[in-house]
Amino acid sequence: MNDTPVTGPAKSRSRTARDRSAEADIEAARRVFRLEADALRAMGDALDDTFVRAVELIDGASGRAVVTGMGKSGHIARKISATLASTGTPSLFVHPGEASHGDLGMITRDDAVLALSNSGETPELADVISYCRRFDVPLIAITGRAASTLGENADCTLLLPPVAEACPMGLAPTTSTTAMIAMGDALAIALLDRRGFTAEDFQVLHPGGKLGQSLLRVEDLMHQGDALPLVAPDDKVADALLVMTAKGFGCAGVVDSAGDLVGVITDGDLRRHMSDTLPSLTCGDIMTGNPKTIRVQALASEALGQMNASQITSLFVARGNAPVGILHIHDCLRAGLV
Question: Do residues 133 and 38 share a domain?
Fold first, then answer.
């Protein structure tokens, strides 16, 4: 037995084989990207009034967008349904196989159905198609074949482009599923725009995680009511000191008889007016006029940015000119805004 370690040419051949394998891997990936990018471009170029009709059918439904599909198309359908629901279009996924065993009851005449099948001949969709036709439920198809059972029975057919699957055997759903998910995203965003869905609406549906934190509004974090440190212009500075100490924000808002915020007193204002006469001065004598405020509906991240830019730690929240809350920089940090 030769126990001599492999070196020299054999080692070089092994490295060459690995290099060739790496090149083949990269070329395979590039082929996928090219084919799928070609499909998306072709689909975008082919958009017409049929897409508008699909948007109108979903938007006009007083119920939900019911999305369905089998196999890989079913996985894409679940994602499309989740995207619709998170962007202001109530939606749910119905498995076509389960639909034939009772889950058709999840689809009502107020809904619109979005069915996915590249071939348009998925047998499990037959009962869903028949149900939609029987009860006049709007049916939108995403398919690669207009002349198919699904395509011919749909109220609106969104065609996938005639681009080959990225799988070298042309079998594994790749290009077609990428096109499906892009079409679903396009529908969701068109509906979002049509319905005037805002960042504030988005935050309501995404309260958790980093995304939810970034969309928190000032009103979600602000202190209000008795927590507000407020004084009147004619109050003595000693009164302001008591309020600032009791409320713990390091400042006091100065409010006139009409309830408008006309100034603010901070620790800096107190230091600048430090003298033997300070106790006899009024809040109006030492306040800083035209204090910075922020809107109730503003994002908390905007408030944090304003505090950082102005090098302040508290910011009054105003509705018009009236203070309705106060936000401390620590409130933003506790909420995870950094």
Answer: yes
CA distances from 120 to 74, 148, 158, 242 (A): 13, 5, 11, 75
For helices 175-195 and 72-86, angle between their N-to-C axes, nearest 10 degrees: 20
User: Residue 276: its pLDDT value, please?
Assistant: 83
pLDDT tens per residue across span 145-156:
999 999 999 999
Least confident window among 206-210, 215-219, 306-310: 206-210
Is the domain of 148 the same as that of 243?
no
Which strand (E) or helix (H) includes residue 163?
Answer: none
Which residue from 155, 87, 75, 152 is spatially nearest to 116, judged by alpha carbons? 75
Structure-token match 């100490």, residue found: 245
Q: How far is CA 279 from CA 238, 240, 254, in A?
A: 6, 10, 17
221, two tokens: 């974090």
